[in-house]
Design goal:
By secondary structure, the chain is an alpha/beta fold. It contains twelve helices and 18 strands. It has three domains: 280 residues, 3-Layer(aba) Sandwich (Alkaline Phosphatase, subunit A); 68 residues, no CATH class; 88 residues, Arylsulfatase, C-terminal domain (2-Layer Sandwich), CATH 3.30.1120.10.
Length: 507
Amino acid sequence: MGVCLLAGFLLTSPLHAEDKKPNIVFIFSDDHAWQAISAYGDARKLNQTPHIDRIAKEGMRFDRCLVPNAICGPSRATVLTGKYNHLNGFMNNANSKFDGSQMTFPKLLQAAGYQTALIGKWHLLSTPTGFDFWQILHGQGVYYNPPMIRNGTDMKFDGYVTDIITDTSVDWIKNRDKTKPFLLMCQQKAPHREWEPPVDLLGKEPDRVYPEPETLFDDYSGRGLAEHDQDMTIANTMNKRDLKLVAPRGLTDEQLEQWNRYYKPRNEKFEQANLSGKELVSWKYQRYMHDYLTCVEAVDDGVGKLLKTLDDEGLTDNTIVIYCSDQGFFLGEHGWFDKRWIFEESLRTPLLVRWPGHIKPGSVNNQMVSNLDFAETFLDAAGIEIPSEMQGRSLVNLMEGHTPEDWRKSFYYQYYEYPGAHHVRPHYGVVTDRYKLVQFYGTQYHDQELFDLQTDPHEMTNVIDLPENAEKVKELRAELARLRTEFKVPEVIPPKWFGNQRIDQER
């Protein structure tokens, strides 16, 4: 067996045929911001996630994992195919449908003898392919008592969606075919909007005040029309269901009683206060953080159950465990919730990986990686040839402490969906360790913006017109053009890719 030594830690190579093929447990949450994982040490210290943190302590934390299109369905399509959305065919959540006949990494693992399972949120409209077992939510799914589809059969479950997905995943691990290596994709709905918490966790910290982000009251000065003309603010976009001023549909009598016990007196107090202006925004932010972070707590508990199951089944030493989200999420930064933008809170997703014997515990990696790389990584770890059509790169070398000399120094991003939900204008751009060059396209608004993360980490000011940046802008434009050529991005985008035929008209 091939070995290498890193800082006194024994690492084994995954690429030798005599090695035992590793199991893969891929835990994928929806809209989980890295700021809401305590292993990342966000300055606000919003919450504690001890079980997710365990993966970081026993493995590697990636601090610069970027997504090529920060929205749910397209991100999932990229994970499956290792390709940008213009090639895998899923550009937006409005009218895209995943082509299940195309090549995906679960199909390749399955063909190589892996037992494969997908449990939880699918959100790609087509029937899952490449899985021996699948149990998925209908569309976005609901938080309470969700209907699901198991291998083509409709089923109804009682309880909270995070617990149901977790428990089904645990049962599948325990009852799997123990003669085969396995891939389990455990894909949570939470903490997606409307971030509805489990009733048994309500009220654990009823009086906590969450620190506000510095940019909660951003007025978008210093930036262009796109940042001003969006519909994703805590101040104006959140509705009564987001704010729990009305109860979710479909609760049982017992669930509704527990729900009202917590929310009803607090909602009455809110109504009596008759808040306005910044006080109202601050109240909405506090309610948002309580609900969102309570959803995260349930996800973290689920991670703990999965890790314990691996321990109990004697699988820990030969199982790769990955925790990540489909993209980042705004937790009040710039006054926003949701995602979609090339900006840091949206572009950057959490990525924590444990692989005993291959990853040094407590490692931190700062290289630019992506969910575009996941399929290649899983195939590489399993000793399966990576198809040339995939556009990412295996992370195995980085996990083992080696950075290839030709590792990426820039990253290409493209968002399509417009006008649609939240009215974020289509844009593409190039990201480096310090800069972002953003090009808006597809509407009458075609401005470019430049952000310098070193001097402006919150991305508050477009500095593209400063004379001292002229050479850097020229360099980034050339790099952007190179990346578009490398990744075979079409020059003309069909209107249907935006999810709305009115893309060439202003709202």
